[in-house]
Structure formats: C-alpha cells, structure tokens
Amino acid sequence: MEKGEKEIKEAFKTIQKLSQSWYEIYQAAAQSAFDVQNSTMQYAQSVFVDGAEACRSHLDAFQKAAEPGNQQKQLPSLMENGIEAYKRNIIFLRRTLDHGAETFKRNTEIVHDLTQTLMKKAQEQQEIVWS
C-alpha cells in the first residue's frame, strides 16, 4: 500500500470517528433539551392542576355559604370560607414553589450532565485529531 493511500485511509477513519462523536453530541443535546422541556411541562401542568383545584375548592365553599337557608349563618360562614380560602392559597403557593424548586434542580442536573458530556466529547475529539 502506498503512503498516500495509507494517509487517505487514516484521514477517512479520523473523519468517521469525528462524525460519530458529533452525532453523539447532537444526540445528547437533543435528549437534554427534551428532558428539560418535559420537566418544565410537568411543572406547568402541576401548577395548572393545583391552581384549578384551589379555585374549585374556593367556588364550592362560597356556593355552600350562599345556599338558601344559610342566610343566618352567612356572615360567619363567609368569614370562615375566607380563612379557608387563604389557607388553600398558601398551600397552593407552597406546592408551586416546591415543585418549581424541584424542577429547577432537575433541569440544572440535566444541563450539568450535558456539560460534562460535551467536555468529554471535546476531549475525545481532540485525541482523535491529534492521534
């Protein structure tokens, strides 16, 4: 085999290895983007569901207080419902913040893992080129 042919084969192998590495990088980046999107969508869905549940509870409580026959108890009942609504709002806020913190932590871990993968692949590419 001639020297030129050998160099061409070596160059071709290097290009194949680099192409595979780039494919793996794109795959890791795409998977990370999907993971972050999924995590964020789950958070948004939990906020929506929790918020709808809190609103439904508020509405149910105030409708019961406004029922006919409850007029003598209406003011104390409205005050009690207002306090309960406040408590439900605090619970909703706490759940929203807790889920938000969990989502942020999960997304941060995903991005950290992606960064580690990218650094590893960059090092592998450098070794491929210089070997």
Q: How does the SSE layout of this entry go?
A:
Layout: H1 3-65, H2 74-130
Helix pairs in contact: 1-2
Strand residue content: under 5%
Poorly predicted runs of 5 or more residues: none
Q: Work out the number of β strands.
A: 0
Order of helices and strands: HH
Question: Overview of this structure, please?
Answer:
It is a single chain. The longest helix has 63 residues, at 3-65. This protein is an all-alpha fold and 131 residues long. The protein is built from two helices and no strands. The chain has one domain (3-130).
Key terms:
mainly alpha, single chain, 2 helices, 131 residues, rod-shaped
Summary, kept brief:
Helices cover 92% and strands 0% of the residues. By secondary structure, it is an all-alpha fold. The chain has one domain.
